[in-house]
UniProtKB/TrEMBL annotation:
NCBIfam families assigned: PRK09414.1 (NF006929)
GO-annotated biological processes: glutamate biosynthetic process
Active site: K115 (proton donor)
Record-stated family: Belongs to the Glu/Leu/Phe/Val dehydrogenases family.
The protein's name in its UniProt record: Glutamate dehydrogenase
């Protein structure tokens, strides 16, 4: 706790991982100590911080702080998203970068862990302001990234539009058209199924978990927080698997539609108008809207937190259990607080940790890198098939590792151990 005292999210992520790794650590204690394996694991390779100055529509110069943490490249080039949100600071990018190391390892693909972003808030900004910010951000970031060095992608506040502006600026500055960012538009090197990948992948993982426990999504009521990229495509796949999604949210409130959420309406509001979830009522006046964060009080069989960190706390977990929820699968990064996770596990609610369950996005990003390297474009079905195989494989690895150490059914422990083993093996092979 003496190190990085002002970064609580980073501490939370590190504690959560290291505590679950106890069985492996105890088995290898002497040589982990000698090689300072854990000390090296929690210290990023580097944290880059920079000024981002841009001009707003009123002609005023605005200044934000940009970050990129290149955490660990033992198994491949750094890879991880960029987040634009007013609360972004070193503690957030480090927690996300640390988690990303294990997530990327779990995919089985050659990608290391990184994350970045800025305290710029895109909400309410004009398209021109977004472009101005992205150009200024990339004007510094381009020095540190490259297709074999570090390949950023999207995260909260960074979707196809922002990736396009960032890529355009990288190309202008470097005179190179290469796979330096993923989540690109299909017209200049993007991968089919990348938009859907995190949400679909979450459902592939959750479905594998349910099936392994004698359950399925058929006729289940599902509640999903958020209404961004992950939430929308989680909802789409949940519907395809026979479930009914009854609630979605954003940071202002949540909608509840007993008949099942009309996803076409949500896509229109969120992907085309960049609007608010309350606008759903304009299209479906019979639905209900609550201007609060009480989405977890809506009764459901499966809960999918897909908005942001620490959005599902102990009180929320108690409500879910009281209403008969059977499974929680994290689409967002660290959305469930530690107390809530432990409570759900004690109550025998199946729990899929984000590190494993939301790895589909970065997995397809790695497939986008492959397509860019070979100058090929794969079909939607080819990418989606690979995604499904990868997610089922991540479930199998997490399940196996948990069983091997006597924690059958604890996928938090299983995912952390499986990811850790791969990274540590690579770090040890490469020496100090
Ligand atoms: P988006 O920006 O597309 O959507 C985020 C959604 O969450 C929005 O609906 C947003 O509402 C809502 N939200 C954000 N903060 C809060 C809050 N404090 N309370 C309630 N709702 C909130 O982001 P993504 O869908 O891409 O990302 C969502 C999560 O998934 C993040 O944790 C991200 O790290 C994680 N993730 C994303 C991946 C991807 O491929 N996109 C891959 C793996 C993980 P509002 O519009 O009001 O801000």
């Amino acid at each position: 706790v003496q190190k990085n005292p002002s970064e609580p999210e980073f501490h939370q992520a590190v504690h959560e991982v290291l505590d679950t790794l106890r069985p492996v650590i105890e088995e290898n204690e002497a040589h982990y100590r000698r090689d300072a394996i854990l000390e090296r694991l929690v210290e990023p390779d580097r944290l880059i911080q920079f000024r981002v100055a841009w001009v707003d529509d009123a002609g005023q110069v605005q200044v934000n702080t940009g970050y990129r943490v290149q955490f660990n490249n033992a198994i491949g080039p750094y890879k991880g998203g960029l987040r634009l949100r007013e609360n972004v600071y070193s503690g957030i990018v480090k927690f996300l970068g640390f988690e990303q190391i294990f997530k990327n390892a779990l995919t089985g693909l050659p990608i290391g862990g990184a994350k970045g972003g800025s305290d710029f808030d895109p909400k309410g900004k004009s398209d021109r302001e977004i472009m101005a910010f992205c150009k200024a951000f990339m004007s510094e970031l381009y020095k540190y990234i490259g297709p074999d060095i570090d390949v950023p992608a999207g995260d909260i506040g960074v979707g196809g539009r922002e990736i396009g502006y960032l890529y355009g600026q990288y190309k202008r500055l470097t005179h190179r058209h290469e796979g330096v960012l993923t989540g690109k538009s299909l017209s200049f090197g993007g991968s089919l199924a990348r938009t859907e990948a995190t949400g679909y992948g979450l459902l592939y993982f959750a479905d594998a978990m349910l099936r392994a426990n004698g359950l399925s999504f058929k006729n289940q009521r599902v509640v999903i927080s958020g209404s961004g990229n992950v939430a929308i495509y989680a909802a789409e796949k949940a519907g395809q698997l026979g479930a009914t999604v009854v609630a979605l949210s954003d940071s202002s409130g949540y909608i509840y539609d007993e008949a099942g959420i009309d996803l076409a309406a949500v896509k229109e509001i969120k992907e085309k108008r960049y609007g608010r979830i309350v606008e759903y009522l304009d299209i479906h006046p019979q639905a209900q809207y609550s201007a609060d964060d009480g989405i977890w009080s809506v009764p459901c069989d499966v809960a999918l937190p897909c908005a942001t960190q620490n959005e599902l706390n102990l009180e929320d977990a108690k409500k879910l259990v009281a209403n008969g929820c059977k499974a929680v699968a994290e689409g967002a990064n660290m959305p469930t607080s530690r107390e809530a996770t432990e409570y759900l596990q004690e109550q025998k609610v199946l729990f899929a940790p984000g590190k494993a369950a939301n790895a589909g996005g970065v997995a397809v990003s790695a497939l986008e890198m492959s397509q860019n390297s070979e100058r090929q474009v794969w079909t939607f079905d080819k990418v989606d098939d690979k995604l499904k195989t990868i997610m089922e494989d991540i479930f199998a690895k997490s399940d196996e590792a948990a069983k091997r150490f006597g924690f059958a059914g604890n996928y938090v422990v299983g995912a952390n151990i499986a990811g850790f083993e791969r990274v540590i093996a690579a770090m040890q092979s490469q020496g100090v």
